[in-house]
Amino acid sequence: MGHKGIRTALKVDLNKPAWEQPGLHNRWHPDVPSCGKIANNEVVKIECLDWTGGQIKNDDSADDIKNVDLTQIHYLSGPFDIETAEPGDVLLVEIQDVQPFEDQPWGFTGIFDKQNGGGFLDGLYPKPAKAIWDFEGIFCSSRHIPHVRFAGLIHPGILGCAPSAEVLAEWNRREGELIAANTTQRDVAKPPEPKSAHAGSAEENLKEKIGREGARTIPGRPEHGGNCDIKNLSRGSKVYLPVHVPGAKFSVGDLHFSQGDGEISFCGAIEMAGVITIKFTVIKGGMAKLAMKSPIFHPGPVEPQFGPGRYLTFEGFSVDENGKQHYLDATVAYRQTCLRVIEYLRRYGYSDYQIYLLLSCAPVQGHIAGLVDIPNACTTLGVPMDIFDFDIRPETEVTKLDMGSCAFASD
Amino acid sequence: MGHKGIRTALKVDLNKPAWEQPGLHNRWHPDVPSCGKIANNEVVKIECLDWTGGQIKNDDSADDIKNVDLTQIHYLSGPFDIETAEPGDVLLVEIQDVQPFEDQPWGFTGIFDKQNGGGFLDGLYPKPAKAIWDFEGIFCSSRHIPHVRFAGLIHPGILGCAPSAEVLAEWNRREGELIAANTTQRDVAKPPEPKSAHAGSAEENLKEKIGREGARTIPGRPEHGGNCDIKNLSRGSKVYLPVHVPGAKFSVGDLHFSQGDGEISFCGAIEMAGVITIKFTVIKGGMAKLAMKSPIFHPGPVEPQFGPGRYLTFEGFSVDENGKQHYLDATVAYRQTCLRVIEYLRRYGYSDYQIYLLLSCAPVQGHIAGLVDIPNACTTLGVPMDIFDFDIRPETEVTKLDMGSCAFASD
Amino acid sequence: MGHKGIRTALKVDLNKPAWEQPGLHNRWHPDVPSCGKIANNEVVKIECLDWTGGQIKNDDSADDIKNVDLTQIHYLSGPFDIETAEPGDVLLVEIQDVQPFEDQPWGFTGIFDKQNGGGFLDGLYPKPAKAIWDFEGIFCSSRHIPHVRFAGLIHPGILGCAPSAEVLAEWNRREGELIAANTTQRDVAKPPEPKSAHAGSAEENLKEKIGREGARTIPGRPEHGGNCDIKNLSRGSKVYLPVHVPGAKFSVGDLHFSQGDGEISFCGAIEMAGVITIKFTVIKGGMAKLAMKSPIFHPGPVEPQFGPGRYLTFEGFSVDENGKQHYLDATVAYRQTCLRVIEYLRRYGYSDYQIYLLLSCAPVQGHIAGLVDIPNACTTLGVPMDIFDFDIRPETEVTKLDMGSCAFASD
Amino acid sequence: MGHKGIRTALKVDLNKPAWEQPGLHNRWHPDVPSCGKIANNEVVKIECLDWTGGQIKNDDSADDIKNVDLTQIHYLSGPFDIETAEPGDVLLVEIQDVQPFEDQPWGFTGIFDKQNGGGFLDGLYPKPAKAIWDFEGIFCSSRHIPHVRFAGLIHPGILGCAPSAEVLAEWNRREGELIAANTTQRDVAKPPEPKSAHAGSAEENLKEKIGREGARTIPGRPEHGGNCDIKNLSRGSKVYLPVHVPGAKFSVGDLHFSQGDGEISFCGAIEMAGVITIKFTVIKGGMAKLAMKSPIFHPGPVEPQFGPGRYLTFEGFSVDENGKQHYLDATVAYRQTCLRVIEYLRRYGYSDYQIYLLLSCAPVQGHIAGLVDIPNACTTLGVPMDIFDFDIRPETEVTKLDMGSCAFASD
């Protein structure tokens, strides 16, 4: 009862390949062997790798981003068996804290190469780029994006319970249909992929099965949450997760020091390795009781608060940059909103790539404003002015500053 | 200097048809005659009709909603000539206050008939419905949605400067192309429509031209703002608007006592007639100076603030209710998020229509969470728990209450 | 039910002496005749004079402040009989709105002459001074204190129910003892004063009695609240007031457009005439049920919010300006804290009197920090940086601006 | 540059007596030897003992509180020489983080025996008592005060630079005068005390001198800050401290996991040992530049935020519990305000001692409301309702709960 430290349910080894660590896995599948037990109402610490499993370095080149192996990502910590959890229950996950490792006080934000991952604005910004962020306590700053500093809204990008076989089959069905119908040049979804599948401590046969059937970790999914990348799922949040298999088989990973709404550059948060402290409580029969199909959460009281009057807010509409009118398309509108911010901040000396990186990871607020006034969806993006050490209000004269450069690839 | 009241730049007559009032108009067109001059740096009051021009009654039937004439809407107050404003300038509009008329302290939220207007969830909720809201100072409550009360985040749904002829032509081109390509059953955009066009004090010939060419007021548009329905454009906000014609020709209307992000039921805000107090300042050459293509705004410090920990937040993904997977579609995801809230709140005794109305008008926060994790867009919707007089937290036992009914149409 | 306007329970006449208006009074006494009835659960509007009853003018001289007649103040609106209220009940007062009169959009802040009223810093600043504030919607600004503008945290300075004869006797006893023991030069309390007593519609005999016995309105008092000058008792607040006489006999007045914690210059809020909208609810047996000896309140969600990081905060201790050490005296500490702000803001070109006025009326936060570390009490004063149109952060270079002058008296 | 961990400038040993550790000291004196150098603009971690130097145990008896040795407290970490700092400069201290030790996740709140320390309400509550708080990430809860849980507003109780000989002499003069004039039974200040003086690495002679002359650490003082116990001096704050000696000689200690305004029970915060991360920057000539006599601070954006409408607020006035009227005495008023909260919360089953402990350490807001309405000062105390797991709003029925007990002494 507090006399000594909180139990660490999983330790990771930052100096060993992720695929050699039995407490990690990178596919969603009901059969991934449990890596440990957690009692109902227990508080534990769980260590996590960064989402690339250590592929990205603290240096000034984006070659590592360019060449990142996207089959070797999202090594999640888990799955954990939560005692008493049964299908139909809800697992209440209270995020008591999230911290980087003390001896690794830095993280990164990346823009993937259009040919290898891409991102929300890759039509305009196809090159890989990177920013390294140094953590100073609750704050971070970057030598690659000067004159900016902010407190992290620290959170896990991914958490969820394992799918049942039925849920997994449904995922594979519907995403398979999308892939089958795809006529574009770009990937629209990721099918199961045996290559680089890591199934924790699974024996070879089981591992093959999981590689063949297991759902990829990239998308969040309505039935369990997963890779939601919700910036407000931060310290103090209570998350309510549907349970689909006995023991819940909870996994977590992809810690973010900070992220903006949308995580637009895809590797857009400030990605880091670290430790998450969680309290687990099983709500028996919770899915029916709460009429729950997708996760619900209740944020804590401790987010960075800038005050409503400290956000400079940009509007965007579903008319794309070629003048084409789209029908109530909030995705197109949000892309335009992001471009409006880039045009505005460019005046201070930042390169477009620097701003693209910044919008991905700073605590910007992306709202759906109006979604019914045909044909235009309208979205807004609020930039907290206090993250800059100069005054970005429209009424203040613009002075171009020396903004240096973010990291680019060598060729 | 404050010795007497602020000048009222336009009075409206609530007992006279909108189309007989020369200070109102319902099309965007550069040639609508100005209804008055406002000095640079002047503060004025402007009276506005509700967006239906008085078609909706304070009663317990939704027949008026069912039969609303959607060609007779959005009678805007204006346009006003702002002294010294020229194309390329930016008009800074400071919203000093917005108030309902003292002797008309009520407003309405409507769900349109799927055959006459529709809305975001009309596939599931095709019937017309209505809630009347009574204003008690800064608060509102409704006999049609009991056990709810909140402070208004009061704002204008529409404000903007007139388009130039070129901008207008561009609107008609691109929206015309969308209409031409439409293969669905539903309207995807509204073309110019001479019927019920009101061009203020225009002579007959000019009025006909404006009816033929004038842009409809339904959508917001990137070049000037217009019907953005941004709930945070409230008291204390500074809005920066592009100027496209000499004198700016500023118009405003469609006042909302409150609105949720998305304004999902289309007639979704708490619509009201009232008075807006604005200060106008011209920023010479502002469009180039601010690199501005679409409006920017800076909210004031006075929004209702519930604290980060008082929002119960729901997640939704771009998988529709038929299990179909959509590709990074934030609009689909937001629809699912809304449905999750309906399923949750239904447990307390509300009908789905009541919740649909409530989500449209209460200050709910709709965020774009993740928009890059193929194929799922993830959006969130935060419901402020303090608007209910009972406890909606998941950990509290549910008691069904007598929630009465919203207003429906007679047949 | 909202179809028409809210009933106005009392109208005041701004062009008639306060003492001729039967709905006003300026003494607390159980026998002041009721000026009207209000039903349980009713919402009404009540008009109020400013606290000087119109003695202060919108001009650039402080002669009116210098010569103010302090026996002719605090003409309260009421008392109102609230149906069903009995001694021992609690009257729940919901402040739905507070507004200035539409045709009188201005208010004033004064520093009284040390010889006529004085104030918190009158040892250092003995001269009378004045600032006129113009209201522009929810904002105010002053020609007497340039480069400052803020949203009002609008509230009534005074509200409360009438004392019973017993409560009144207790007030007179204990304040009389303080006066009797006074050995200083200054008034320490105000005894009953027949001169200029106004007892509403009371007949001459009763009026004399009330003049002789009635408690003065200057101090707030624990048994009923009264002149608390609590800036956060603003729009949206629910106040719980003890009831001491049948019908409660509720009175209200002394409206403030804004005030800082402490209201340090005594006439320190932005004083105004206006209208307050209140809902009244009687809680039977509430005093015992709530174990209530003094009023409790629950603020609404709509205060101006600057964010925790937007307050520049000054520390003060209970060592006075002569180097004398006081024992845990929070009053002395707060005076020092105010002086620290004056020294800091003076660097920008403001006169001490301008800052003294500003600290009295702007929404500054005065906290009791530490009150146990003998011998020093420590208090803090947080100044919201966003009320200035220049940057007051310590890291920004100081530029002296032309700050004009506040109004002073003619000699 | 972030590649590796932040340097720890001082380690403490929790298993060794404080007085044997040369990096600690418990007197303010210019001659305490520096325990290390810190560069201008450097970020370091500094470890700190709890303020009793480990005297209090994690158990269920308050015997340790009863018998605490108050000469053996406030072992501060330091002093540190900050490179380039000279008298007249300002030391900018950015508090980047404060954390408990990972293997000691608990703290304590105490009420001292009236005969040994006492506190703000010791007239009514003379007995020693204690509550142990367990930390679960950013939250804490106590087996001694059930049904309460909140996020810490973590901060150092003490930080400051060393006094010069002149400043120290002034402290001793003015506090000595207070002591000399004392006619009460209680200590009004603490004179220099050779007993248990710890002067870091000082040789015997110097140590004796420091014991003879050195200022006690209990009070905060205007010239340097010191033991201010300001709850908002939390993570993210920038504090501006006057420098009086070459190298500044900065010290810090007395870490608090949380504290309420006033820290009323004297050992009132949640006291803990832990680590603080600070960035130091010297502002040359800062005292003149900022016209600074006492510290100023600028809080960060990350405090727990409950929203203005989530504080139940109590009023108190300067009339004491014996009915005696005091003249504008904010200290008396705040004591009454605290008593009003105790009376209210007692209804739920808490003992008065439990509430007294809770008010000392939970993030309650203590405001100076009105300080000019003779003879009554009015203060308010806002209790954040969300720290309770039951509903404390006045409109909710009271149910008494089993609240157990706080720890008391054995006899």
Automatic annotation (TrEMBL), chains A, B, C, D:
Domain of life: Eukaryota
Region of interest: Disordered: 185-206
Pfam families referenced in this protein's UniProt entry, alphabetically: FmdA_AmdA
InterPro entries found in the cross-reference section: FmdA_AmdA, FormamaseFmdA
Compositionally biased spans, kind Basic and acidic residues: 187-196
One MF term in the entry's GO annotations: hydrolase activity, acting on carbon-nitrogen (but not peptide) bonds, in linear amides
NCBIfam families linked to this entry: FormamaseFmdA
Name of the protein in question: Acetamidase/Formamidase
Species in which this protein is naturally found: Aspergillus coremiiformis
